[in-house]
Amino acid sequence: MTRGAHGPTLVLVLAVGVLVATGVTLLLERSLTRILLGIILLGNGVNLLILLGGRSGAAPLFGTAPAAAMSDALPQAMVLTAVVITFGLTAFLLAVAYRSWYTSGDDEVQDDLEDRQIIRLAEHDELAAADLGGEGPDGDPEQVDPEPARRRLRRDETT
Fold this sequence. Notes:
Elements: H1 10-27, H2 32-53, H3 73-104, H4 113-128
Helix pairs in contact: 1-2, 2-3
């Protein structure tokens, strides 16, 4: 990883942008294979971004170089951890994709029936609570402060 006078090279920054953008685009697909590829690309882009945050230099071993000339070991450790996590997530998604292909012959993520029912109920509630206007204060459920009712004077019926 080479740096210019002011920071990381433009090629590495563009590579991070392309990897993350492609990964996010693939994550939004409905095919489990594309979702898996999106996770891999996104993970690689984020790993490269973390590495760009550290400084380059000599190996971070005590006594091999002055402390100012050593590379930062924290981003390297974070990337190593992120690689392991991405590998575990990739293995899990591969198992899910294989199981989906084995049971249904397709790796496309289907809509959940409960989700469709919730959407239908929400649309029904929106239509039922719609304010069509012109109902007057008695017919408008959103009327907060209607006019007070006029009182009728009670007359004694005995007189």
